[in-house]
Write a structure and sequence with these properties.
Blueprint (H helix, E strand, L loop, with lengths): L5 H8 L1 H11 L1 H12 L3 H29 L1 H21 L3 H29 L5 H29 L9 H7 L2 H10 L7 H6 L4 H4 L1 H9 L5 H19 L5 H16 L2 H6 L1 H6 L5 H29 L1 H24 L2 E2 L3 H8 L4 E3 L2 H6 L7 H13 L2 E2 L7 H15 E2 L2 H16 L2 H12 L2 H56 L13
Antiparallel strand pairs: 1-4, 2-3
Length: about 525
């Protein structure tokens, strides 16, 4: 195989990041159509969106260990196959359960990719280029986000005349097959990680005794004996992670992995279209604003890409967290100042529908009133809906009544949609030039070689678990405590994160792998 530059191999393996971004965010458009088609509960919506994160946390827990055992390249090839299968099964799924299962398979793929790709890149890169090359993984993730948003926008706006609303979401999910197949084709062109090969060779006898010991343990006389030795090896290295030498570093890495997700970034990415639709701007405009999220994400990831090796990891994290606090506070303020006003135009619009004989007098009583509490307005609206007199012949279904209720609720909402957009874009920009790429760079540098696989696996598991919880509870949280309080919580968490990063995170810029100051 012809030797090529680290950049060449980085571009190939980081396509796994592109697929993660595409697979995870394409649902932001699909969920709007699925919700309209199946009238999803908050619980169902949470499962569909968060299913990949749920399975990814287990893939992250085992992915690093698997790559230590069979190699980075083979592990990535397994990842690529899972991407293809997940995209196909998602597009042809027949019910919510099969869709969730197919998306979980995709989670296995990007859970493995998220931890193996940065490790592979860090192990083939010169130290002076490592931060920038590892950041290409994050760059490809955000390009994947944007590609999914553009794909959703194109399908949802321009193909609706040929596709029914019942199958639009299938086409949105099927597009992923193209880059997934390309990934399968390209991966055989990369070499195995030289650091991993060294850990398996005789050279490790002098340079990496702990890794050499691990290699010898893998050559037991039987499969059962090898498995027991492998377990003993992992147990030993768990003890090493918790030893006085590495305990503080391990805890810092764990905190950083949790912080990246608990600030709510994937709730924003994966529910973006739904968030913008809640401001009352309509589905087409919501899809367009979601594209702007992807554009901002790319621009500020590029900022991190070109500055991370100049200013350092710690500098970007601290200033990015400041921006996240401010932006989430703006978003919270925008939603907290929402008012609900029922207008005469809305009443007339629905009074003229064929299935309605007489509109409820409660609607007239609500005219001119301003509701600052969504719960209070919903209670009055429900009361009004119950008193509508329907025509017997065209009474409609319970689903029709529910859709009318949701439409009136949305049309009555009055808030500053531009303020919400500003807050969301500011949050994405701040994340993209800090926690997004920097966390993975720090993780690839902070552990020594013999602890890197298991260390990143544990942090990756906790990162994905936090991501799953955040995505899963987000729609439930909005229903219980409302939009304003939800985003205020994200702002508060980011503020706490800033304090801990400032106090405990060391700078890893320019250091040898596993050697920090």
């Amino acid at each position: 195989m012809q030797n090529r530059s680290p950049l060449y191999y980085t571009m190939i393996v980081s396509l796994g990041g592109f697929l993660f971004g595409f697979d995870a965010s394409v649902i932001s458009g699909g969920i709007v159509y699925l919700d309209a088609l199946f009238e999803l509960s908050s619980l169902s919506k949470g499962w569909i969106v968060s299913a990949p994160a749920f399975s990814a946390m287990f893939a992250m827990l085992g992915g690093g260990v698997l790559s230590d055992r069979i190699g980075r390249k083979k592990t990535l090839q397994i990842v690529a196959f899972c991407y293809v299968l997940s995209a196909l099964l998602s597009a042809i799924s027949q019910d919510i359960g099969s869709l969730v299962a197919a998306r979980m398979l995709g989670g296995v793929a990007f859970g493995g990719a998220l931890i193996i790709v940065p490790v592979y890149i860090s192990e083939i890169s010169p130290s002076e280029q490592r931060g920038r090359l590892v950041s290409i993984q994050q760059m490809n993730i955000v390009v994947g986000f944007l590609a999914a948003y553009f794909s959703n926008y194109f399908i949802g706006v321009y193909l609706t005349q040929w596709l029914s609303a019942a199958i639009i979401w299938r086409w949105m999910l099927a597009v992923e097959l193209v880059p997934a197949i390309i990934y399968v084709v390209l991966l055989p062109k990369i070499p195995e990680s030289p650091v991993w090969l060294m850990s398996r060779s005789g050279l490790a006898n002098k340079r990496r005794p702990a890794v050499t010991e691990a290699a010898s343990l893998r050559t037991g006389p039987s499969v059962y004996g090898s498995f027991l030795n492998w377990l003993m090896y992992q147990k030993k290295h768990l003890y090493l992670l918790w030893s006085p030498t590495w305990r503080e570093i391990f805890l810092v890495a764990v905190f950083l992995g949790i912080l990246q997700q608990i600030t709510g970034i994937n709730a924003i990415f994966f529910y973006a279209t739904s968030i913008f639709e809640k401001t009352g701007i309509g589905i087409d405009a919501s899809l367009a604003q979601t594209v702007s999220v992807g554009v901002i994400n790319i621009i500020f990831t590029l900022v991190a890409f070109f500055t991370i090796d100049r200013f350092g990891r710690r500098f970007l994290l601290l200033w990015g967290l400041v921006g996240m606090v401010i932006s989430m506070s703006i978003t919270a303020y925008g939603f907290a100042n929402t008012e609900y006003k029922l207008t005469q135009e809305i009443i007339v619009k629905y009074e003229q529908r064929n299935e309605i004989r007489r509109i409820s007098p409660v609607f007239e009583e609500m005219l001119g009133l301003s509701y600052t509490s969504e719960a209070a307005f919903k209670a009055e609206l429900s009361k009004a809906m119950e008193q509508i007199s329907w025509n017997e012949v065209e009474n409609g279904t319970e689903s029709d009544h529910s859709k009318m209720y949701q439409a009136i609720l949305l049309e009555s909402k009055q808030l500053n949609s531009y303020l919400v957009l500003l807050g969301i874009l500011g949050f994405v920009a701040s994340f993209a030039c800090s926690l997004g790429p920097v966390m993975w760079v720090v993780l690839s540098e902070i552990f020594p070689t013999h602890l890197r696989g298991i260390g990143i696996s544990i942090v990756g598991f906790l990162n994905s678990f936090t991501s799953w919880v955040t995505q899963f509870v987000f729609p439930i949280e909005l229903n219980i405590i409302g939009d304003g309080f939800t985003y205020a919580i994200f702002a508060g968490i980011a503020a706490i994160g800033w304090g801990i990063v400032y106090r405990y995170l060391p700078e890893t810029k320019g250091n040898k792998l596993g050697k920090i100051r």
